[in-house]
Design brief:
Blueprint: E1 3-7, E2 13-18, H1 20-29, H2 42-57, H3 65-75
Antiparallel strand pairs: 1-2
């Protein structure tokens, strides 16, 4: 991949220029890339806030994901 770092007047990195061919390849491999910076809906923010509050109130409920996978494997 070929790219150029764009600098501002003070010499600080301000951006990156990539070729359109590279951008096309990136979009093919990561189809959602153009929406990554967009805001999540309010209902998702509220749900996350509820879950974070529940974890803060009762942190002992957290378990490693490996335990969940092991449990799911046992149920099959």
């Amino acid at each position: 991949m070929k790219f150029q770092v764009i600098q501002d007047g003070a010499g600080n990195s301000a951006g990156v220029f990539i070729t359109i061919e590279d951008w096309t390849l990136i979009k093919a491999n990561y189809p959602d890339i153009e929406t990554l910076g967009s805001q999540i809906p309010d209902w998702q923010k509220e749900l996350l806030d509820l879950r974070i509050n529940a974890i803060n109130k009762n942190p002992q409920q957290l378990r490693p994901i490996d335990e969940l996978f092991d449990e799911l494997d046992r149920e099959i």
